[in-house]
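Pseudouridine synthase, Pantoea leporis. Tokens?
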Amino acid sequence: MFPTAKPMRKTSQRIHQDKRASAPARKPVRRDTRPKGPRRVILFNKPFDVLPQFSDEAGRRTLKDFVPVSDVYAAGRLDRDSEGLMILTNDGALQAALTQPGKRTGKVYFVQVEGAPQESDLSLLRSGVTLNDGPTLPAGIELVDEPEWLWPRQPPIRERKAIPTSWLKITLFEGRNRQVRRMTAHIGFPTLRLIRFAMGEHQLGDLPPGEWRDISAAI
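Tokens:
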């Protein structure tokens, strides 16, 4: 004889269901992006071999060596071996507008590459290429002359006499780590020098390397 099965109790399941149904929905936490003090927006022309941050335990050159302003932060990064425009601000909304992928803010770079890319090479970048972290968005690519406003880099670029170099104007609408360098390498033309000229409506203009300009009152 098998033992008589005991009837299942349904009260426990119903109680748990009721508790789940009555639990209040969690509201999304909104970050306060307003400046804590007076709004500051600073344009800085970052020289080569300067870290895009205000401190470094190894004693390397940082933004602090050039910009004596506290409580501002870089909107996006610019690699140590790259040059040009950085925007420093305490305005979280501006920082998000310039850096968040969904905003699709254009960033313009002048790029010296090794070799002589043809239109067939550049069309690959215009359409988007697949890097190790996924496909890139279509980019604006132009073959241009060396910019007349360009300053000498210290130390100079080491060019190989037997290989020509070319200049490209590249407009990106995203900002992955070392993206420009990876894109040009992907089509066979390594980047030798990279200068960011614009982020959205903000441009480098005639700002010399190592100098900064406060535009807080102008925008």
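The longest strand covers residues 191-199.
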